[in-house]
Write a structure and sequence with these properties.
By secondary structure, the protein is of the alpha+beta class. The protein is built from five helices and 20 strands. The chain has two domains: 65 residues, Carboxypeptidase-like, regulatory domain (Immunoglobulin-like); 222 residues, Immunoglobulins (Immunoglobulin-like, Sandwich), CATH 2.60.40. 17% of the residues lie in helices and 39% in strands. The strands form six sheets. Strands 13, 16, 17, 19 and 20 form a five-stranded antiparallel sheet that branches. It has a four-stranded antiparallel sheet with strand order 3-2-5-6, with no helix packed on it. A three-stranded mixed sheet has the order 4-1-7, with no helix packed on it.
């Protein structure tokens, strides 16, 4: 009887035993995504869900195809697809484009080699262009006038383009005249006045991004311009014109070509492409880009290493210049 009892007890104990619980492997269906960008601190979205993490960082995701989207104030949102594999890390780099680009201000200087006050204004402009602002913020074009001397050699070399620009501003009769972004006319011989006008325009957001490159082969200059629209709603395309100006700097004479005693000249307009009237710009959508290409012969009288190409977008009616750029 005792043996039977022990047998039944053992059977009961064996029957009551269970296998220990198995801990599921939570990583078997997951992988990781290392997200980096040209912009730090951009919010990372996984399949339209905010992860709470920012670039650069690594997030966990289920395996399969996923979309990563980045967002940050001042930049267009950007996204990319990624294939996630189990127990591995996928690297993904997403480039973000800035909504706001640096405003580059255009200073137009209307001067003459026999204009005495032009000596002062030229000194001011050179200081501002080379020291105070630099070409990443300020671009200069000098348009020669036929007054007070009608025989200014720079004017005579490109009189038609000079006259067109003088008439465009209703017209100009005084040298020196400085015009900032087509709309502000500070006192040309007052540095503080010119600086104030430039700073005012630097705080204006530009709806365009402009880039320009040029190359000279033998005597032929080729120009490539890219116009990118950032905010189509801020532009009146009905009156928009792209101007392209070939300038020469560091022009030196052994003796003054005029009566004001100057022998060195900078940023002098040599030619306008495709003409002094510019090129009409047809509407662009947001983030749409268009290329313009010009070709022209250069003069043997120009120092090719000192040539630059200035481009700017201007409203023909309001005179407002939206954006400017200059080649290296």
């Amino acid at each position: 009887m005792k043996k039977l009892y022990l047998f039944m007890l053992s059977f009961f104990v064996i029957q009551c035993q269970t296998n220990p619980p198995t801990t599921p492997d939570t990583n078997i269906n997951n992988g990781r995504i290392s997200v980096s960008s040209n912009v730090d601190g951009a919010s990372i979205f996984l399949d339209d869900e905010l992860t709470g993490q920012v670039t650069p960082d690594t997030i966990t995701s289920t395996i399969g195809n996923h979309e990563i989207r980045l967002e940050k104030d001042g930049y267009y949102s950007a996204s990319s697809e990624v294939q996630v594999n189990a127990n591995s890390t996928e690297n993904i780099y997403i480039n973000m484009e800035s909504i706001i680009v640096q405003k580059v201000v255009l200073l137009e200087d209307f001067a003459n080699v026999s204009c005495t006050p032009c000596v002062i204004s030229n000194q001011i402009i050179e200081k501002l262009a080379n020291e105070t602002f630099g070409e990443t913020r300020l671009v200069v074009v000098k348009f020669p006038t036929n007054f007070p001397s009608p025989v200014d050699p720079f004017y005579l070399a490109s009189s038609q383009a000079c006259d067109t620009r003088l008439e465009f501003y209703n017209p100009i009769f005084i040298a020196p005249t400085v015009i900032i972004d087509g709309i502000n006319r500070p006192t040309a011989t007052d540095e503080e006045s010119v600086v104030s006008a430039i700073n005012e325009r630097l705080h204006v957001e530009s709806p365009f991004e402009l880039t320009v490159t040029d190359i000279i082969v033998n005597n032929r200059l080729s120009v490539s311009i890219f116009v990118k629209c950032l905010n189509a709603d801020a532009v009146n395309y009905e009156n928009l014109v792209l101007h392209t100006v070939l300038t020469e700097t560091d022009i030196t004479f052994d003796s003054p070509p005029g009566s004001n005693g100057e022998t060195s000249f900078y940023n002098v307009m040599r030619k306008m492409l495709p003409s002094s009237d510019g090129e009409i710009v047809t509407p662009l959508g947001n983030r749409e880009e268009r290329q313009y290409i010009w070709n022209t012969e250069t003069s043997n009288n120009w120092q090719k290493d000192n040539l630059h190409v200035v481009v700017f977008l201007q409203d023909r009616v309001t005179k407002n210049i939206y954006q400017s750029a200059v080649s290296d």
